Amino acid sequence: MDSLDHRILDRLRLNARAGYGDIGNVVGLSASAVKRRVDRLVADGVIQGFTIKVDPTIEDRGTEAWVEVYCRGTVSPDELRTLLENVPEVVDAGTVTGSADAIVHLRSKDIASLEEALDRVRLAPHVDHTRSAIVMSRLVSREQR
Amino acid sequence: MDSLDHRILDRLRLNARAGYGDIGNVVGLSASAVKRRVDRLVADGVIQGFTIKVDPTIEDRGTEAWVEVYCRGTVSPDELRTLLENVPEVVDAGTVTGSADAIVHLRSKDIASLEEALDRVRLAPHVDHTRSAIVMSRLVSREQR
DNA sequence: GATGAAACCTAACCTTT
DNA sequence: AAAGGTTAGGTTTCATC
Questions:
Q1: Can you give the three-state secondary structure of B21-72, one letter per residue?
Q2: Among A34, A88, A116, B12, which is 20 to 30 Å from A17 by CA?
Q3: Is pLDDT of B6 > 50?
Q4: Mean pLDDT across the stretch B108-136?
């Protein structure tokens, strides 16, 4: 992982379909050299995949909320994972420090379907209660770039 | 946006470098027809870009936290945005319903640098106090990256 | 880094509905 | 007209040197 690798990652982040030759022109390598590095970055797990960014509203994911989940007693992360993986609206979740057991990021079509998804989280075993914050306006969005 | 478009998006989400011919074999179209649809999806803003998923630890973003931001008085979303955009560790943020003014998702190298970033948020004008939850274990990760 | 064959992208043209 | 298929060219990928 030298500076050339980082610059190649930057180019691919901007355009994952850029040709090896084009990337090479920017970073100062031949197409073959770039391909070898990209292949190695994939093999090493540095590049975990090539994807697209899709407008969330197109796929009924324009409404979002962050939810703190509070459980009764002690619940293993595995139990929580199983529960949350069964709710497709959950896009991101983790166990956290502090009073809540987990924080869950939900994405859905509208408030109604968001509430429906939240209910599925809330009515699961072990879950005591939740504390929700519905996103009104997005301020920063650098998760996908 | 018909079902073919959705299936093409699914294929590209799995592998943004898949060939048009390969995608066509799966969805039942010729390579040209797939290319025309992809070009249209890009032109219409449905596909917002082609990117890579990079292992967060490689780029010093392995430690994360969710932070509720509470402000004094009334603060416009624009002021909050300006503030948060100047902290590179902020990967995601939005104004929310409930008692907090905003929720901020931070990613950094380790706890120490996370705390440093949090301080930059906390010491900004208008910010009264924050309430943080550091992520211990990731449960679900379906965010498009 | 260079080479060459195979695979792919792309645009123009044709067919179908 | 709108959408898909076919073809032909130029370019890119990829294994090998």
A1: HHHHHHHCCCHHHHHHHHHHHHHCCCEEEEEEEECHHHHCCCEEEEEEEEEC
A2: A88
A3: yes
A4: 96
- Say yes or no for a CB contact (<8 Å) between B137 and A97: no
Task: Classify burial at A43, counting beta carbons within 10 Å of its beta carbon; exposed 0-12, middle 13-18, buried 19 or more.
Answer: exposed
Q: How far is A83 from chain B (nearest CA, A)?
A: 10
Please, what is the average pLDDT of chain A? Answer: 96
Separation CA B17–CA A51 (nearest Å): 8
The CATH number given to A56-134 is: 3.30.70.920
The integer distance in angstroms from the CA atom of B34 to the C1' atom of D7 is 17
Tell me the domain boundaries of chain B. Answer: 3-43, 56-134
Of A16, A65, A137, the CB nearest to B17: A16
Tell me the pLDDT tens digit for each residue of B100-118.
999 999 999 999 999 999 9
pLDDT at residue A145 in the model = 42
Q: Is the CB of A104 under 7 A from strand C?
A: no
- CA A88 to C1' C8 (Å) is 36
Look at residue A101 in the predicted model and tell me its pLDDT. 96
- Nucleotides of strand C under 7 angstroms from a protein beta carbon: 1-3, 7-12
Subset of residues 30-69 in chain A with CB less than 7 angstroms from any atom in strand C: 30, 32-33
Q: Which of A15, A47, A68 sits opposite B50 (nearest CB)?
A: A15
Nearest CA in chain B to A13: B51
Is residue A94 predicted with pLDDT exceeding 90?
yes
Q: What class does CATH assign to A3-43?
A: mainly alpha
